[in-house]
Amino acid sequence: MRNDDVRALYDRTMREQARPDGPGVRVERDGPLVRRVGGPDDWNGVVWSSPDLDAEGADAAIAAQIGHCAALGLPEFEWKLYAHDRPADLGDRLRAAGFVPEPPETLLVAPAELLTGPFTLPEGVTLHPVTDAAGAELMALAHERAFGTDGSRLLHQVVKRLAEAPEDVVALVVLADGEPVSSARMELYPGTDFAGLWGGGTVAEWRGKGIYRALVTYRARIAAERGYRYLQVDASAMSAPILARLGFTALGTTTPYVYRPGR
């Protein structure tokens, strides 16, 4: 896998030529930017900026996105900044305009076929595809327990996707003696080489027992069967070392810059 070539492919097909990531979401080209726009419970933000963006253009583009956020009454708006984006001080300019950086993530990619081997789960632990609202509630509960965050937004997005575009998402929950202890999903992007792994997390007492690996392997098998060449993850500092051991390669970093009106 030639890292520069894969990153260029990712930039072109997943960012510049981004597709809606859920029902009711649209993709808009706004001058030198590409953004996804949906409702208040959807992810709204910039996914790509032109490599020719200069300082003057960046300031104008940032101001335009703040105005866009205000006009739609969105509770927050994200600019997904990659380390190789230009201009080099774009992060500083976003901060000066009121965007707040969240912890950086590592952009990781692996050939899907590489990760389709066997896996085992501990005794009493079972992996279940999520196909309805009841399963999505278990998935959101596992997410809350693993990350200590509110899972209501995830629940809304998964239920909506299962109802309106189930062929483009793989949602999973892991139960231990009937209790949800881990969950994850995979977003499929038809017409591209990439399938995205999202939200993988396990409650603390069940970590280190092979559950996370099983969730990756299960999704890799489906991606490979459906013809996707690569798995892509925006990995947290906790997940990145695990994924690297599984065979993922780092292509760079990405930092979410979030704008929240009135804060």
UniProtKB/TrEMBL annotation:
Protein name as annotated: GNAT family N-acetyltransferase
Keyword Acyltransferase recorded: yes
Domain N-acetyltransferase: 125-263
Pfam families: Acetyltransf_1 (PF00583)
GO MF annotation, one: acyltransferase activity
Enzyme kind, highest EC tier: transferase
Keywords of the record: Acyltransferase, Transferase
Enzyme Commission (EC) number: 2.3.-.-
Keyword presence, Transport: no
